[in-house]
Fold this sequence. Notes:
This protein has about 450 residues and is of the alpha/beta class. The chain is about 40% helix and about 10% strand. It has helices spanning about 10-30, 40-45, 50-65, 85-95, 115-125, 140-150, 165-175, 230-245, 280-285, 310-320, 325-335, 340-365, 385-400, 425-439, and strands at about 70-75, 135-140, 160, 190-195, 215-220, 245-250, 275-280, 295, 370, 375-380, 400, 405, 415-420.
Amino acid sequence: MYTSFAFSFMPYKTILSPRASITTQDNKNAKDYRTKVSRNPTLEKLQYNYLFPEISEREAQHAKKYPNAKIISLGIGDTTEPLPDVVASSMANYAYSLSTRTGYRGYGAEQGSKDLREAIAETFYKDMGIQGAEVFVSDGAQCDISRLQMLFGSNMSIAVQDPIFPAYIDSSVIIGQTGDVEQGSGRYQNIEYMRCDPHNNFFPNLSKTARTDIIFFCSPNNPTGHAASWEQLEQLVKLAQENGSIIVYDSAYAVYITDGSPRSIYEIPGAKKVAIEVSSFSKIAGFTGVRLGWTVVPKELLYSNGFPVINDFNRIICTCFNGASRIAQAGGLASLSSEGFKAVMSLVDYYKSNAEILLETFESLGLKAYGGVNAPYLWVHFPGSNSWDVFNEILEKTHIITVPGSGFGPAGKEYIRVTAFGHRENILEAADRLRSLLL
């Protein structure tokens, strides 16, 4: 039975400092010409490196230290299973058609092909009143988060779940919405952190949440795996209505929901007047490398002066984006066909089974693990620990990559995130290694 870890690694800040000091020393020694252009002050506020490239760097360092070790990644949420043939064939055929005079196409609509926009509306928003013209196809949900920040601008106040996917906070820092970081807590000033943990069923106490212009909300949540209930989302929409706020709702993992929780914010009455929804083909169809997503901006969503938000987002798209790859869109359309959707959902079921294996593993070790039911992530609690220490201990002794919970916000300090994306044989081997370490 798990009792405690014998931590023997330097804390996260200490580990990063040699790398940072090398960069600083190089700058001091550099004799190259310097411009008179000042560095963007908002970028100076960012803490350390972005989480996932940092983990990849640590994985590379570990592989160099142990060249014969088989490293298993349960860290970065990258899909591993081959694309369904119907999807890959569609993209291949479209790509080949571009080599013909009759099949070649250049620029497409910045908002995405009409057929794909309508297919997304029909597949994911049927009976919710969402039209294809309100769907904007993109190169991924994370890219759209930054475009939405450009839409909102630097004068907006924001609220985020804690813990939450770090792109929301980092993009807010870059756009200039935040103050300085608070020493000790790691929180940025001018951000409302909505703590979500087991004590409140991973849903914030909205009665104590300060009013903000924008509320970023992810369900199923990355990293906790919690899918908000009907009652919880009704409370969220009500709060936005009362405060005149806009919800940015991330539903990238909605197809993993199995317990009947809402898969879209638009299932909640009144949500079209207060919410934008962002989603992706990455974890639905295995498009992490293909890059395809979408954002829904309802025509009913209005600014305080009555101007439609959709008009401004369309301008952002037309100015900053030339449209998603036609080849990727062909794959997206194929994945939403009757045959294609059945095939991609079998991939989702595969990863769900992986999650069940990992969940049973941690439970057998006496550890409390959340998620793994409505999402491909598990949020594992190590009471009294530091998540980077846990990350390092597991990596050093089992050659398994996880993600330290503090990378998702202050509330993640005692947790690690584990992903169910992986080949089945690797998931089973990882489960055996974890048992050997923690029993």
